[in-house]
UniProtKB/TrEMBL annotation:
Its main location: mitochondrion. The gene is Ndufaf7. GO terms for cellular component: mitochondrion. One of its GO terms (biological process) is mitochondrial respiratory chain complex I assembly. Residues 393-412 are annotated as: Disordered. Belongs to the NDUFAF7 family. Its EC number is 2.1.1.320. Arginine methyltransferase involved in the assembly or stability of mitochondrial NADH:ubiquinone oxidoreductase complex (complex I). Acts by mediating symmetric dimethylation of 'Arg-118' of NDUFS2 after it assembles into the complex I, stabilizing the early intermediate complex. Keywords: Methyltransferase, Mitochondrion, Transferase, Transit peptide. This is Protein arginine methyltransferase NDUFAF7. GO terms for molecular function: protein-arginine omega-N symmetric methyltransferase activity.
Length: 418
């Protein structure tokens, strides 16, 4: 399993939540028939009352799954360096917004802000602000404690942010429910294990053509859900299956497409870059929809609302949805990206500075988790959206020798900080 998991909340709490969500879904299915997998996933994850992220959002060691920033501080530090390196390569603009989508417990932003603080002499004249896009009230509370020491306040109704505060390092932080609410401006975007949580549609090829996979109530067993195929083509089958498709089963995440379109438009207009890290493939995999609870794989249709539901990110689809408004880089494997960012050197420094054996073992263990191809090293990928001029001089075609070469993009190439 790509997503490594762990457990929070007793079974009793889990069962209570499952009961309410299942009753809600069963009523809906009986009243209006089967729903798409996307609709099911949206309900199970982000229903305002009973959704998994709304109520539990079990990221971290005591949650249902563990993520790279929760495994090692080095992960976030190297990403912080990536942003500084891109900021320098883009001519050190006087202000930027760091915008994170789905920040979980806030650990990644915390580690990035520590790097910004350590490199404050480099960033000294730059006006930095942090903008977090988070739907879960429970997780935004945890983020506020982590990042501001609990000193965040609800924003007035007329402001686009629903909460704001100041980071422990003195940087203003704002919370939003939707990327569209984040003010325009030069921005560095970050999406770590975000796109995999967005609702997918699933399609199956049959002898009679493509059908959408739907979720229905099982007539034989009370309150049990099952997959069925749409009797005919649905609007989604018309829109999302390419005529040249060769696979027999396809998953599409239109919401990811819409968000990437927005990111690409914003970067094209206002400048910046986006870094996306997630498990995924380049348009080759078929059935990847899965659930996690208590560190274990969990049946996606059982006890909805109590387990994390996820699907691999299709990077080829994200690239397509950027629609040429930005350049794209990757996907590149996590172990290659982190190696290029200098993880080996960082590990050596931390090992040298740590006196006790337990800390050294912990450092080596977390390095192995992030880098080992059998663990997270191969299945997680990095992907970036960058303005075209970051990769090719606008006037290169006419006068190839007139400009000094552009600095390589760190992570996708070796890091060169100048
Ligand atoms: N980036 C974090 C957390 C990943 S879990 C980490 O790597 O540890 C997914 C995150 O996305 C959670 O914070 C969840 O609440 C949030 N999320 C899920 N669906 C969302 C949506 N539609 N809009 C905004 N945030 C969402």
């Amino acid at each position: 399993a790509a997503r490594l998991c762990s457990g929070v909340g007793g079974e009793a709490e889990a069962a209570g939540g499952a009961g309410a969500m299942l009753r809600h879904l069963a009523r809906k299915l009986r009243a209006s028939g089967p729903v798409t997998v996307a609709e099911y996933m949206r309900e199970a994850l982000t229903n305002p009352g009973q959704g998994y992220y709304t109520r539990r959002g079990g990221v971290g060691e005591s949650g249902d799954f563990i993520t790279s920033p929760e495994i090692s501080q080095v992960f976030g530090e190297l990403i912080g360096i990536w942003y500084i390196s891109e900021w320098m390569a883009m001519g050190k603009p006087s202000t930027f917004q760091l915008v994170e989508l789905g920040p979980g417990r806030g650990t990644l932003t915390e580690d990035i802000l520590r790097v910004f603080k350590q490199l404050s002499s480099v960033l000294s004249k730059c006006d930095v602000s942090v903008h977090l896009v988070e739907v879960s009230p429970k997780l935004s509370e945890i983020q506020a404690v982590m990042l501001t020491g609990g000193k965040a306040q609800p924003s007035p109704e007329d402001e686009s942010a629903y909460m704001k505060g100041i980071s422990k390092t003195g940087i203003p932080i704002f919370w939003y429910r939707d990327i569209q609410d984040v003010p325009a401006g030069y921005s560095f975007y970050l999406a770590h294990e975000f796109f995999d949580a967005l609702p997918i549609h699933k399609f199956q090829r049959t002898e009679k053509g493509w059908h959408e996979v739907l979720v229905d109530i099982d007539p034989e067993v009370p309150d049990q859900l099952r997959f069925v195929l749409s009797p005919s083509r649905t609007p989604a089958t018309q829109n999302f299956i390419q005529p040249e498709e060769t696979r027999d089963h396809v998953e599409v995440c239109p919401e990811a497409g819409v968000i990437v379109q927005r990111l690409a438009s914003r970067i094209e207009k206002d400048g910046g870059a986006a870094l996306v890290a997630d498990y995924g493939h380049d348009g080759t995999k078929t059935d990847t929809f899965r659930g996690f609870r208590n560190h274990k794989l969990h049946d996606v249709l059982s006890a909805p609302g109590t387990a994390d539901l996820t699907a691999d990110v299709d990077f080829s689809y994200l690239r397509k949805m950027a629609q040429g408004k930005t350049a794209t880089l990757g996907p590149i494997k996590q172990r290659e990206f982190l190696k290029n960012m200098g993880i080996d050197l960082r590990l050596q420094v931390l090992l040298q500075n740590s006196g006790d054996t337990a800390t050294r073992e912990q450092l080596l263990h977390s390095y192995d988790m992030l880098m080992n191809p059998e663990k997270m090293g191969d299945c997680f990928n990095f992907f970036a959206l960058l303005p075209h001029h970051r990769l090719v001089h606008p006037d290169k075609k006419d006068k190839p020798e007139s400009k000094s070469p552009l600095p390589p993009v760190a992570g996708f190439n070796e890091l060169l900080l100048k």
